[in-house]
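Trying the structure run again after the queue cleared.
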Amino acid sequence: MNPDQIVREPNSGETIEQVITNLGTNTINLILYFAGAIAIGFLVYNGIRLIQSQGNEEQIGKAKKSITYSIIGIVLITLSLIIANSLVGFVDTAI
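Done. Tokens:
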């Protein structure tokens, strides 16, 4: 995301509704990108935990469970991003 997409020049020909829509879209995207980065970080961390478990079944089970939750989180974040941008597209055309 380019910083120019978040902050725009005043009086750039956009209506207040478009500015608010863009600000909301960019804010939601930024939050979801940040959440995605955290989920990927958890995935990597738990992958390392799995490797370092050294055959301990309890540790392997915990790491696999956490990896599963991380993947579910990534999928949900991706779907949220798609849904949010689609809804903004519908609202933007209605304005």
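The chain has a mean pLDDT of 86. Worth checking whether this holds up in the mutant runs.
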